[in-house]
Amino acid sequence: MDKLAIVILNWNGAAMLRQYLPGVLQYSRDEATIYVADNASTDDSVALLKESFPEVRLIRLDKNRGFADGYNRALAQVEAEYYLLLNSDIEVTHHWLTPLLEFMDSHPQAAACQPKLLSIFNRDRFEYAGACGGYLDRLGYPFCRGRIFDTVEQDCGQYDQPAEIHWATGAALLVRSSIYKEVGGLDGRFFAHQEEIEMCWRIRIRGYRIYCLPDSRVYHVGGGTLPKENPMKTYLNFRNNLTMLYKCLPDKDLRRVMCLRWWLDYMAAWQMLLLKRNVGDFKAVYRARRDFKRWRKDFVKDRQLIQQSREGDGSAKLVPLSILWKYYVKGCRQFTNCIPANS
Question: What is the pTM of this model?
Answer without folding.
Answer: 0.95
